[in-house]
Structure formats: structure tokens, C-alpha cells
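Researcher: Next entry in the queue.
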Amino acid sequence: MINSCTVCHSQAWKIFTLFLAEFFGTGMLLFGGCMAGLDGFDNVTTNVSRGITFGMVVMMAFITFSATSGAIINPVVSLAAYIYGTLSFPLMLIYIVAQFAGALCGYGLLRAVTPWQYYLQALEIGDGHCVTVPHASLSSGMALAVEILLTGILVWTNCGVWDPRNKKDSDSVPIKFAFLIAGLSIAGGPITGASMNPARTLAPAVWNNSYEGLWIYFAGPTIGSILMASIYRYIFWQEYKATPSFVCNCADGLAKQEFHSAKTVP
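Model: Structure for this entry, 266 residues:
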């Protein structure tokens, strides 16, 4: 007979590992992605170079942590996963806290290992290193719409990956997401910075004390996530009969395992 304390301890440890996976994954995103956007060390970045590197960092995070937590590393994608049905509400909250904390620490670590002069330089000529702000030619409504649409594309892609009908095409998902993030970042970078991720935007804003248009990067991605995840869940998703398979340790207790419809944790 299994002791109830042992079960509780095991459950707590699994939740802690999920938290750590999302914490380190999002920290990796901010550390590596924003490092690629640093103008210094006799290097000048471009919109294309920044977009490609962010895509590569997402791929590395996915390869490292997808088996543990799904490597969501984005609060609004966690929200989409809850709407879609792959995360329970408590687990979604744990993911979101981990992602914001990881982003703040990841960017803070980058600041700790980088000469201060480069951050001062970025503040002098703009809003700060890796800070996302709308282009001066945009109205707030235009910038909001861009973030809604970019995030919507990202969320729809995630929903497609979670769809059990695409299970046979999952072997190259890290590469697909690398190209997806790179493409969206390159396309939307000059317009709004192509955040699509409130945690990615908040961390540089806090560390650089630069908050111009910050509400856009919370409202836009959140609206895009709710809208597109709901459309996919209630219009495009279809019941799929399949043999139950255990995809991820985050299923225990908190994640919704509806084997009858083959929905699983990412």
C-alpha cells in the first residue's frame, strides 16, 4: 500500500520540476535571445539576425525542456493551452509564474555578464536594449492589432501541434518552431518588436526602467491567445479516437488527461 505522504511528496516534486523547466526555458529565451540583440563588442545586429537567433534559442529551449513541461515559455501560450484543454487551471498559473520569473532572471543574468556601457548606449539612442516598443508611425490601436495577429499565428501553430491528428508529424517540431519564431520576429520586428510574449517584454522593460506602451504587449498577446485558441478549440478541433499515450510527466493530477479524445499535455 502506497503511503499518502509519499504520493504527495512525489506530486510536489513533479510540480517543482515543471516549474523549473518553464523557469529555465524562459530564462534561456531572454538570455540567449536578447544577447543576440546586443549592439556591442564591435558587432552591430540587424532585424534579421535578431529574428533568426530568437528562433534558434526557442528551438534549443524546446529540445531541452519539451519532454518535461512542453517548453511553452510564454504566458499567453500557457493560457492558450488551458483554453485548448491541455493544461489545468492550477498548472497554467504555475507555468505563468515560472515564465515571468525566468524571464526576469534570464535578462538579469545577461546584464550581470555584459559591460554596463552597452546598456547605457541603448538607452541613449532608444528605449533600452531588447525593449519592445511600437514604431513611432503607429497608433496604439495599430500596434495592438499587430501584436494580436502575430500572437494569433503563434497560438494557432501551437494548437495545430497539440492536435492529436498531427501526432505523426511531430518529429520536426523544434525546427518548425525555430522558423516560425524567426519569420514572425523578422516580419514584425520593425513594427512592434514582435513580442508575442508578455514575459519577454516585461523583463527588459523592468531592468531598463522603460515602460512605453507596455500595456500593448500584455493586452495584444492575451487577446490574440484567447481569440485564436478559442476558434481552434471550438471550430477546428475534432474528436480523435486513438490509443492513450503518456506524453509528459506534467499529466499527473493537474493536467487534464482526456484519453477518450486523445488530448494530451504538450
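Model: The two ends are 32 Å apart (CA to CA).
Researcher: Noted, moving on.
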